Amino acid sequence: MTINLKTIKHISKLSRISVDDKKAKKLEGDLNLIFEFIEKLNELDTDKIEPLTSIAETTLKFRTDEVKSKDIRNQILKNSPEKNEDFFVVPKVVE
Amino acid sequence: MSEITSQTLTELVKNIKQKKISSEETTKAFIERGDKSKILNSYITEDYSSALSKAKNFDNKPNFDFKLPGIPIAVKDLFCTNGVKTTAGSKILSNFVPTYESTVTQNIWNEGAILLGKLNCDEFAMGSSNETSFFGNVQSPIHKNLVPGGSSGGSASALAANLTPITIGTDTGGSIRQPASFTGTVGLKPTYGSCSRYGIVAFASSLDQAGPMSKDVKDCALLYEIISTYDEKDSTSIDFKRNKYSNELSNDIKGKKIGIPKEYRVDGMPKEIEDLWTKGIEYAKDCGAEIIEISLPHTNYALSAYYIVAPAEASSNLARYDGVKYGFRSKGENLIDMYEKTRSEGFGAEVQRRIMIGTYVLSSGYYDAYYLKAQKVRRLIKNDFDEVYKKVDAILTPSTPSSAFKIGEKTNDPISMYLNDIFTVPVNLAGLPAISIPAGVDAKGYPLGLQIIGKAFDEQNILDIAYAMEEKIAFKNKITDWWIK
């Protein structure tokens, strides 16, 4: 399978990472190399194999859902690139 | 008494407990050496003044019941430290100050340790040479312009250069063991679920594990015993009976069965690695172990499966960096444009490449062909290990297919960089513990490591084997302090 520039643009959109033509060209080359390497897996017949979805394979424990951190709103807001009173500010989304 | 900074953790703890040295003297010694070693670029953030005041506080009211009484320690900048900047080596987190502490670091502060600072690493732990860090390359103290390995490259460099007595790293595909091997130090990747992932910047959640890096096996056992705890804040943390690993450490490994997997004899492996492995087998025999030839038939597919699973999980984990609630933000014409520019400018090339791979293998129409396929191959790899562990207690392999390389040597070829992890990746896919110990040097004098892989939760066993072999190998790391004028 070959990944072309159109696919690169599509993945970049899904990833929310903007790529210009130069970067797309470079990614096209790199990704094709990497997928050639990855596709080695097709040599294996895995039809009857169960996928390994969790390495720990234990049942998840239950715990009470309670708030443990107190009054950290200001500390958290301090990390925000732009804030207004108690809110995070983003570019306008509603016209 | 030898110089403070060149002592092992065990020696430092003893000397502090016997009041031969104070925490302040110890902390000062590491800071002074750190100041002379800036060219290595091991640190991203130094927390020296706070470290000194904590050391003074410790000396005023010492508690010698602690396992790490007033011991200054620098940690990989992937662990969130409350109130101290945590970057994961990325521009996108370059101004992020956590409001909480990772469980693993909290465990070491609870035993009296003091934070010296945060150590450089590959961006989001994606790399094998510490060259993808937004904060620049790290130099290996072994030789000028040599990579320390990665992703825990700052940790390995700082440890080998005596800037910290021990350190903690994280290992997703070899990020503790490979840099340990490159710098002549000891590194343990614990069983998945042994150390809490809470508060560690996530890369690939089903593979990530924190682990100790140290100058010898005894220190490694002590640090592992402290950081491995059950934690309800990590839903994959496992509640199993943990040993007092350092107390129970034993060099008696007579009769242990050690497997030698033929598939690790890869094409083009340098003769030096082959010889090191043969020597390792002899050392194990000298210790009384029984050597058994084994086969792990799917080894050759591990790296391909890894480069589906890890990027897939990374693309999902890194979706949170959107420039809204924390971290770097770029200006955009609208919300989507802001997201796209923030992520394009905030992530480096390797991270973007992996997010793209991950997004693609999870995207509609490709999930079964790639992600599901990789999970099935992951099962086959785990089955290989389950099968051989019916016959052997542990497995011995080289840690890496080569010694450390020059800065810039492999940056243009992603595949040759990925091949660095060929011996370490299967362990992460199977969730097993493995330790790398220094075992010799190549013709250039660069360190080479041997890896001992254990059964799940059998850390004591591989620590014991490593301890016994360390004694036979008697490796001495030759650091010339070339960077100190």
What's a concise summary of this model?
The complex is a heterodimer of chains A (95) and B (485). Chain A is mostly helical.
Helix and strand layout, with pairings?
The complex is a heterodimer of chains A (95) and B (485).
Chain A (H helix, E strand, L loop, with lengths): L4 H11 L5 H18 L34 H6 L4 E2 L2 E2 L7
Antiparallel strand pairs in A: 1-2
Chain B lengths: L8 H9 L5 H13 L7 E4 L1 H13 L11 E5 L26 H8 L3 E6 L33 H8 L6 E5 L5 H7 L2 E4 L19 E6 L2 H11 L29 E5 L9 H16 L3 E5 L7 H16 L17 H12 L2 H14 L5 H21 L5 E5 L15 H5 L6 H6 L3 E8 L5 E8 L4 H15 L12
Parallel strand pairs in B: 2-3, 7-8, 7-9
Antiparallel strand pairs in B: 1-3, 4-6, 5-6, 5-10, 9-11, 10-11
Helix pairs in contact in B: 2-3, 5-6, 7-15, 8-15, 9-11, 9-12
How would you characterize this protein structure?
The complex is a heterodimer of chains A (95) and B (485). Chain A has 95 residues and is mainly alpha-helical. Chain A has a domain at 5-43: Histone, subunit A (Orthogonal Bundle), CATH 1.10.20. Chain A has 3 helices and 2 strands, in the order αααββ. Chain A is flat. Chain B has helices at 9-17, 23-35, 48-60, 103-110, 153-160, 177-183, 217-227, 271-286, 302-317, 335-346, 349-362, 368-388, 414-418, 425-430, 459-473, and strands spanning 43-46, 72-76, 114-119, 167-171, 186-189, 209-214, 257-261, 290-294, 394-398, 434-441, 447-454. In chain B, the strands form 2 sheets. An 8-stranded mixed beta sheet of chain B has the order 4-6-5-10-11-9-7-8, sandwiched between helices. In chain B, helix 4 (103-110) links the parallel strand 2 and strand 3 (114-119). The longest helix of chain B is centred in the C-terminal third of the chain and has 21 residues, at 368-388. Chain B is globular and about 65 Å long. Classes of the chains: A mainly alpha (95), B alpha/beta (485). Chains A and B meet through helix 1, helix 2 and helix 3 of A and helix 9, helix 10, helix 11, helix 12 and helix 13 of B.
